[in-house]
Predict the structure.
Amino acid sequence: MTDSRTPFTRRAALALALGAAAAAPLAALAQDVRPLEWVVGYAAGGGSDAVARATAESMSRQLGRPVIINNKPGAATNIAADYAARSKDYGNVMLTADFATLAANPFLFAKLSYNAEKDLAPVGLIARFPLVLVVGPQVPAKNWAEFVAWAKAQPGGVNYASAGPGSPHHLATEMLREKSGLKMTQVPYRGAAPAMQDVLGGSVPFMLIDTAVGTQFVLAGKVKAIGVASAQRIASLPDVPTLQEQGLADFEASAWQGLSVPAGTPPATIATLNKALVEALRSDAVKARFTALGVEALPGSPDDMARFVKAERERWGKLIRDNKIQLD
């Protein structure tokens, strides 16, 4: 006589086995006692490093395991991106993947050792660094109309400082040049901080600076903020109008960062990392730190990040191609 319980028992056993297999990445991530490595393509002490460390501290508590920052600066984030993209230590390596890594570098460099679209998978956006047009003390302008009048009056055009060729500061100012019709020439620096110092000192008259570096100088009255390159005013500088408000139509630009992992990382692991990231970005501690840095948290899903990156890649890729900007 056939035991009618047998098919049910086998099905139940199979379901349990499949469920255990699906849960394995989650369990492995939570139970792994090794530190989770977060790779940052910038030097320690800068805005990107500060954002990563604040977020990592909160994520560590959510995940129940240490998260360590591994700074690998250089080559416009390509060193860090290549390191993370080549890693097979799935579930144990993450990368700050930003404007440069995901949107600009695929067009700025003729050949890269990694493919940003294929070799890296999104976990979620982290933060947006609004850009502010600031002028040094020698520039008489106080708003966009006065800035345009001043720039047009300069023989041969005007110089601007940037954080380096291909940086958000550089590309956003090239977009500003296109939309305004003003003649502008880049003076590149090795980072936003030294560029800002020369604007303060009067060596270069203006720049688009990210809020993480520039806010303190605006609030201290050491530079004048002409306008914000965002669609809306920003919390850290609520009295500074946007450039769009002042008549520069459709101009919006910012630096931004997301969290990515090597493309072979299991979906369940990505989901766990995303949950910890979103909870971190919504925590009071991280919000307070981001406010102090002048950056805006961007909690969301991996799909949200993928859509955002696709749009940014198309927008900045066109600008780079149209202006024939190359870094190699």
